[in-house]
Design a protein that fits this description.
Blueprint lengths: L10 E3 L2 E3 L6 E6 L4 E7 L3 H19 L3 H17 L1 H12 L3 H23 L4 E3 L6 E8 L3 E4 L7 H13 L3 E4 L5 H13 L7 E3 L4 H10 L5 E5 L2 H12 L4 E5 L4 E5 L5 H13 L9 E7 L3 H12 L21 H15 L3 E4 L14 E4 L16 E7 L2 H8 L4 E2 L1 E5 L3 H10 L4 E4 L14 E2 L2 E2 L4 H6 L2 E8 L1
Parallel strand pairs: 7-8, 7-10, 8-9, 10-11, 12-13, 12-18, 13-16, 15-16, 18-19
Antiparallel strand pairs: 1-2, 3-4, 5-6, 6-22, 11-21, 14-15, 17-20
Helix pairs in contact: 2-4, 2-5, 2-6, 3-4, 3-6, 4-5, 9-10
């Protein structure tokens, strides 16, 4: 059904949709077929300068727009996204590959972010400090200024909206650069904002060579804030660029989520959750449950049941009925995942299921289960970002926590237990920005989303996510 996809795409600057013209292009590929389905114009430096100028001019106007008016536009954009969810979901499946139901569901969850931030902006209160009679001191929050935001391809709408919604709600202007692999669904999100009445210049969307676009935008004195979701190496590079101008940053970087399965857990409920969660979006999720540490007494039983369930995951084109897992997003991913599995096998891991690229068009990969994976295997130390579950047994709570914390990453972590003391200890001791116990919910929208250690800093979502786009000012009157 990729015929719903437009043959030519555009980007948007200062109220104008811009065609390819004489610009370089990126060829958008359907990952289920490997075929080119559209051409996307890459912004030139002149285009980027125009976007910067538009954001600079729009900021003071939008900053001074009453919060109720900003909120009304965000609510209207949310309604438009829900009305257009079917169309946007089809675009997302065509360009990213995830099953259509998951894509449409992502659009609905994304629309909720507009609603949440619209209301959070109304509740962003300052405070009055205690002072002697005749004096006043108070604290207020103000928008940081124009924002440069960069988002990846795995959640083509949900990840960029986590940047758009709080920035716009706070009163900032923003230049968004989504992934070139998945442009159309993000473009339609911007269209919803514009159709809801967002003024020209408040939100621009551009595409191009990632290194060139990021370095050009971040170097500009116009940009006051950088938000990035992606890999640790790229995040560190962008932080260095931002440091040159002392720009505020939010970095949501890689994860390698541990899953601690204790012998007193509800086995059936745990399996229902983790198998579905592991292969959601073909494992291309920064908070995907990946490193399964299973208590020794139930290890063999858990591994067998997990493998049996994983073997029933239906893989195919996301437009087909009954599909539970689509292809990997681009031609690089099957090779990368395959190399990590080969390395683990060479070091002693047991392949219980899968392990291979599927012999068909597109970028499909088997749901894979590796058992007794040694700690020196690359896949135990580097995020696979694919449909691979790796397992090891543990004996004690202390052992489990030590293994969960052994990496320099700390985004999400999960634990399954019926013991309240164990749950409390896990919540306290695991080094991660988000810990889910007996569930996999780490991004409900009203709670902070972000990591620790090399998984980044700052939070998205909820009041913390809004404050990330604001500066704190103290005013003292005598």
């Amino acid at each position: 059904m990729s015929n719903i996809y437009p043959d030519k795409l555009q980007f948007h600057i200062d109220g104008e949709w811009i065609d390819i013209g004489d610009r370089d292009v990126h060829h958008v590929v359907n990952p289920a077929t490997g075929e080119v389905i559209s051409d996307l114009p890459k912004a030139s430096k002149a285009d980027l300068d125009r976007a910067l100028d538009a954001a600079d001019k729009a900021f003071p106007i939008w900053r001074d727009t009453p919060v109720a008016e900003r909120a009304a536009i965000l609510h209207k954009a949310a309604d438009l996204m829900r009305e257009r969810a079917s169309n946007i979901g089809q675009l997302m499946t065509a360009e990213q590959g995830k099953p259509l139901a998951q894509a449409t569901g992502e659009v609905g969850a994304s629309a909720a972010q507009f609603d949440i931030m619209a209301e959070e902006a109304k509740r962003c209160y300052g405070r009055v400090l205690v002072r002697p009679a005749g004096q006043n001191s108070f604290v207020k929050y103000q928008p940081v200024g124009p924002v440069a935001a960069f988002s990846p391809w795995n959640f083509p709408v949900f990840t960029p909206i986590r940047k758009l919604a709080p920035a716009i709600a706070a009163g900032c202007s923003i230049i968004l650069k989504p992934a070139e692999e998945t442009p159309a669904s993000a473009i339609e999100m911007i269209r919803c904002l514009l159709d809801a009445g967002l003024p020209s210049g408040v939100a621009q969307i551009v595409f191009g060579d990632p290194a060139e676009v990021s370095s050009h935008l971040i170097a500009s004195p116009v940009i006051r804030k950088v938000s990035f979701t992606g890999s640790v190496p790229v995040g560190k590079h962008l932080m260095k660029l931002a440091a040159e101008g002392m720009k505020r940053t939010t970095m949501e970087l890689g994860g390698h989520a541990p899953v601690l399965v204790f012998d007193d857990c509800d086995m059936e409920k745990t399996l229902d959750l983790v198998v579905t969660g592991k292969f959601r979006n073909a494992g291309q999720v920064c908070v995907s449950p990946t490193r399964f540490y299973v208590q020794s007494g139930i290890y063999d039983r858990f591994e067998k049941a997990f493998t049996e369930r994983a073997s029933k995951v239906v893989v195919g084109d996301g437009f087909a009925d009954g599909i539970e897992m689509g292809p990997l997003a681009n031609p690089r991913r099957p090779s990368s995942v395959g190399d990590m599995i080969a390395d683990a096998k060479s070091k002693g891991a047991e392949v219980k299921l899968g392990g291979h690229r599927q012999d068909k068009d597109g970028f499909f990969f088997d749901p894979t289960v590796l058992s007794h994976v040694p700690l020196d295997a690359n896949i135990m130390n580097d995020e696979p970002f694919g449909p691979v579950a790796v397992m090891r047994p543990f004996d004690t709570l202390d052992d489990a926590i030590e293994q969960a914390n052994r990496l320099p990453l700390g985004l999400a972590a999960y634990a399954f237990t019926s013991n309240l003391h164990t749950a409390n200890m896990v919540g306290d001791k695991i080094e991660a920005g988000m810990v889910a116990i007996n569930n996999l919910t780490v991004s409900p929208g009203d709670a902070p989303f972000g990591g620790v250690k090399e998984s980044g800093h700052g939070s998205e979502d909820g009041p913390d996510g809004l404050k990330a786009y604001m500066v704190t000012k103290a005013i003292h009157q005598a």
